[in-house]
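Exercise 7. Predict the joint structure of the components listed below.
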Amino acid sequence: HDVLEANEELALRNHHLLNGFGIIAFNIMGAIGSGKTTLIELAIERLGGRYRIGVIAGDIVADIDANRFKRYDVPVIAMNTGKECHLDALLVKNALDQLPLEDLDILLIENVGNLICPADYSLGESKRVVIVSVSEGDDIVEKHPMIFKTCDLAIVNKVDISDAVGADADKMVSDALRLNPSIKVLKTSKKVGESIDGWIEFIEASMNVCR
Amino acid sequence: HDVLEANEELALRNHHLLNGFGIIAFNIMGAIGSGKTTLIELAIERLGGRYRIGVIAGDIVADIDANRFKRYDVPVIAMNTGKECHLDALLVKNALDQLPLEDLDILLIENVGNLICPADYSLGESKRVVIVSVSEGDDIVEKHPMIFKTCDLAIVNKVDISDAVGADADKMVSDALRLNPSIKVLKTSKKVGESIDGWIEFIEASMNVCR
Ligand SMILES: Nc1nc2c(ncn2[C@@H]2O[C@H](COP(=O)(O)OP(=O)(O)OP(=O)(O)O)[C@@H](O)[C@H]2O)c(=O)[nH]1
Ligand SMILES: Nc1nc2c(ncn2[C@@H]2O[C@H](COP(=O)(O)OP(=O)(O)OP(=O)(O)O)[C@@H](O)[C@H]2O)c(=O)[nH]1
Ligand SMILES: [Mg+2]
Ligand SMILES: [Mg+2]
Ligand SMILES: [Zn+2]
Ligand SMILES: [Zn+2]
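Solution:
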């Protein structure tokens, strides 16, 4: 409990640091393999021309996703989380110290694949996003209430394979809204370009509100 | 570190308790939604006539999977893990105290969906199984070395949707063997009955060796 309190204090300081530089940070959480990296890549592709984007990749072997992001012309920090199953504010502070903050507008933080512990750890973000995919089963939202209660946006990804796994994407959407009536929910597929529009609009709308 | 040592001591006592009753216990770990419950259901369907099977369902909302198992004529204990992202030996001891141990041959334990922390927590099992699915991406094995190093069997599930998600199941198999040359690896799909034979044979072979 002291751990959580200490983390909240550090997170608040990160938040002030980011605000000072006018950077909007997104804590992108989700199940293992749900599509976090894919959706961050799509955001960089669609917004990287207009906004200066930085990325923090957090995982036990962070280099694998970090190397995907490095193919784009953006600053990337890989943060190895060791045996921790979630990023925390201290690790994010270490990453912020290595980023060119004066040259960034958007910070995309890929958290460790986990629907439990990241719910309790703020990082200093402006917006919290949780990504699940239909392949995890359509009971995945109701099985993890806390994380949906703490997020601003939920993405139900890989809707193109709903039938193949026997999952009802609309049940997942309504489960999220029942848990958190103020959460925004999107259904996406990397194979359907228009389905990504809502994700891009969410990022841009966050820029306009928060700056 | 003391936490881990204390857990190991409890796990050893669970192991002796189970051995005393001649019960073979399987710690079934894996990513969120990888197919743990599905593969346990298939084991109950195929072996429940010949062996007396008990199940422990561990999760933050354990009743959801526990209710799936209760449709079969087997003893089921739902273990809510609270904010913990892994089962531990103490929770399993609580479950063992509620099971009719004198009437069981096989104990199937569904762990919390997580490829990180369960690697460090023994429960008292005879065999450790990790289940991943192609939908998590074919880099999921190399991203989580510790859990594969500690397991007896790795299952690469949902191979029927490999093309739909652009994943190479054989890469996942060879990654597991590279990390742990003595691990057994199976490729499965719930849609292909024969692919489940290897999983059933693994359970039965474990019975013959351990008893
Ligand atoms: N069919 C389909 N596959 C997808 C979609 N989005 C991602 N994938 C696939 O899902 C797998 C995992 O995608 P990633 O973006 O690496 O997921 P992640 O959440 O970053 O994974 P981790 O960081 O390892 O937890 C990859 O094989 C992707 O190609 C989608 O919309 N449809
Ligand atoms: N296409 C396909 N879908 C599968 C397969 N196995 C399981 N599924 C689907 O994958 C989803 C998750 O399956 P579960 O068995 O609930 O997975 P789990 O690992 O127990 O999930 P959690 O306990 O929530 O972590 C369900 O929608 C299943 O129908 C498979 O071999 N192929
Ligand atoms: Mg990723
Ligand atoms: Mg399950
Ligand atoms: Zn955790
Ligand atoms: Zn953990």
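Discussion. The helical segments of chain A are 2-20, 36-47, 63-69, 89-96, 145-149, 162-165, 169-179, 197-210.
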